[in-house]
Design a protein that fits this description.
The protein has 421 residues and is of the alpha+beta class. Helices cover 39% and strands 21% of the residues. It has 16 helices and 16 strands. The strands form three sheets. Strands 1-5-6-11-10-9-7-8 form an eight-stranded mixed beta sheet, sandwiched between helices. Strands 13-12-14-15-16 form a five-stranded mixed beta sheet, with helices on both faces. The radius of gyration is 28 Å and the shape is elongated.
């Protein structure tokens, strides 16, 4: 049996890298005032159909959907914004009229073509700010992501920003796009021809060469923004400049989910090449209403942690794990093992890694294992040590050895590590 294609096992020698990223995320989110939310890994399929949009690639081609024993259509979450909004509504967080700042870290699932940094079960870190209308909220979430990447050591970052308008100005632009692409319909892929009338903005996001070529001279959304959207977009640019965050205006940037309005952005790490986007997000002022709640202006982003890890590994930016003191207790016989277990428990309570033989090896075999394990000290308990009430504590680095009363072993090792004589 093997792990399914597009999934991976994260073994102990790699798990510390994930812990390093997640610790940096949690520390920064705490500074920005974001609270963690954990949602179920599966939801009613309708949530994603309504929230993400039934013309998106995610809904039409990539979701893991099944019927449960109760006849309900269930989907493994392909993203977490819709789930966070569902939780926001279910628990009536909107009732206090406050801005709610949330973050999450977890597994998502999409039936996609696996490649470097992209899996069918993948992990995302994301934030959602619910109830904030000001472009300052957009600038804050962008700053949070940008600061995270810079603190982790990434330098070749490019922020792309765009505005995709609102319900007032986007219909005008949408019609212009339809007219433009109708004249070039023969160059579009089958999928884009199918969705042209429903969602022409998605053609701008298509990766097929024909569609990309056909959209080179397409109308720009920024030429059709209403006065309010234009003012918000200009304010966002002003705030990013104040934060010292460089950016590029990208009129082709529309993102892949239907719920976005106004701000859309991506942070790209150029050394990754074609899969350079490590963060994407934007404003979704209509999503809460779409799912059945009150009007709630919101903004957020998501970061693919596999792709972020790939970027950090490429640049050698993940520090070696902090290695705690390591003690191996070699004990022979039940009474010696009982004493060893007591010492082991005390060492662990003091934050020391303490191991013992679990395979019934001889004392010689246990000492050999102590050397292989990389232990700093070996605590040896045999017949003579039991009789004397003292363990032989051996430094594995220089081979020196001292006899220490059983009850004093933890303190002796702590003193040796701190340099106390």
């Amino acid at each position: 049996m093997q792990a399914l294609r597009g999934t991976q096992d994260i073994l102990p020698e790699d798990a510390y890298k994930w812990n390093y990223m997640e610790s940096a995320i949690r520390r920064l989110c705490s500074c920005y005032g974001y609270g963690e939310i954990r949602t179920p890994m599966f939801e009613a399929t309708e949530l994603f159909q309504r929230g993400i949009g039934d013309t998106t690639d995610v809904v039409t081609k990539e979701m893991y959907t099944f019927t449960d024993r109760g006849g309900r259509s269930i989907t493994l979450r392909p993203e977490n914004t819709a789930s966070a909004v569902r939780a926001y509504l279910e628990h009536k967080l909107y009732g206090d009229q406050q801005v709610h700042k949330l973050f999450y870290i977890g597994s998502m699932f999409r039936y996609d073509r696996p490649q470097a940094g992209r899996y069918r079960e993948f992990h995302q870190f994301g934030v959602e700010v619910l109830g904030a209308d000001s472009p300052a909220a957009d600038a804050e979430v962008i700053a949070l992501a940008y600061t995270l990447f810079r603190e982790l050591g990434l330098k070749d970052l490019v922020l792309h920003v765009n505005s995709i308008g609102c319900g007032k100005c986007r219909p005008v632009y949408r019609q212009k796009l339809i007219e433009y692409f109708h004249e070039r319909e023969d160059k579009l892929c089958d999928l884009c021809r199918e969705r042209l009338e429903k969602n022409p903005l998605r053609v701008l996001d298509c990766k097929e060469e024909g569609c990309r070529a056909a959209s080179v001279d397409a109308p720009k959304i920024t030429d059709y923004l209403c006065e309010e959207c234009q003012a918000k977009f200009e304010a966002l640019q002003k705030y990013l400049t104040a934060l010292g965050i460089p950016f590029e205006l990208d009129p082709r940037l529309v993102r892949g989910l239907d719920y976005y309005t106004n701000t859309a952005f991506e942070i790209q790490y150029t050394p990754l090449g074609a899969q350079s986007a490590i963060c994407g997000g934007g404003r979704y002022d209509g999503l809460v209403e779409e799912i059945g709640g009150p009007h709630t202006p919101s903004v957020g982003f998501a970061v693919g942690l596999e792709r972020l890890l790939l970027a950090l590994e490429m640049q050698g930016l993940i520090p070696a794990p902090v290695r705690p003191r390591h003690v191996y207790i070699a004990a022979l016989g039940e009474d010696a093992v009982a004493e060893g277990i007591r010492i082991q428990q005390q060492l662990r309570a003091d934050g020391v890694r303490a191991d013992m033989d679990l395979q019934g090896r001889s004392l010689k075999g246990q000492m050999k294992q102590a050397g292989k394990s990389g232990a700093d000290y070996a605590v040896i308990i045999g017949e003579n040590e039991l009789a004397a009430g003292e363990a032989a504590v051996k430094s594995m680095a220089d081979g020196t050895q001292e006899n220490i009363p059983f009850e004093n072993v933890p303190k002796y090792i702590a003193d040796k590590e701190s340099g106390v004589k």
